[in-house]
Amino acid sequence: xxxxxxxxxxxxxxxxxxxxxxxxxxxxxxxxxxxxxxxxxxxxxxxxxxxxxxxxxxxxxxxxxxxxxxxxxxxxxxxxxxxxxxxxxxxxxxxxxxxxxxxxxxxxxxxxxxxxxxxxxxxxxxxxxxxxxxxxxxxxxxxxxxxxxxxxxxxxxxxxxxxxxxxxxxxxxxxxxxxxxxxxxxxxxxxxxxxxxxxxxxxxxxxxxxxxxxxxxxxxxxxxxxxx
Length: 228
Hints:
This protein is mainly alpha-helical and 228 residues long. The protein folds into 2 domains: 2-131, Ammonium transporter AmtB like domains (Ammonium transporter fold, Orthogonal Bundle); 149-223. It has helices at residues 2-12, 20-33, 35-54, 59-63, 69-81, 86-107, 115-131, 149-158, 166-179, 181-200, 205-209, 215-223. Pfam families: UT (PF03253). It comes from Aequorivita xiaoshiensis.
């Protein structure tokens, strides 16, 4: 049970939620949109957490999911950008392990947040594209001509974990609310503000409705929540 607790907290920590129920709702939301990405999220979290346990990193950090969330994002990212096969599956495993090593290295110097995921994912994409010459998955988004408020806000939550699905976004919002309702309200405000700012700056309705202009605002609002 302690291991499952760490895994769920790790998934929750992607959006700063140290709560097992938040983590559970996040993973349910991902599976709702894509069972493959849901599986990738679980595998990435498990591998990064087990790596930390094997290397005997801080038990408190492991318990609180701090070695899990970068693996969560790395797992999702690999299958967001590339088709699943033996090479990309290996990259997912290796990337999840490396995310833990980078996390442990950086946390002694600076607050790392998701920088281990960013660094490792860049390296994986570079390697798969240029060394193995694997093509990126080609997406053909439907072009929107009008702003959709509900889609923009809900998808902003989903895009924190590469999910463009309104229902998934609502699961994510619920997950934050379970942990802290005021934090969820801040996140909604940030998503609205980010989306409307993009609209004022004449960004494409397609990008705004997909949540690409709001998810960073959500993360900033939650990261700064309660700070003076």
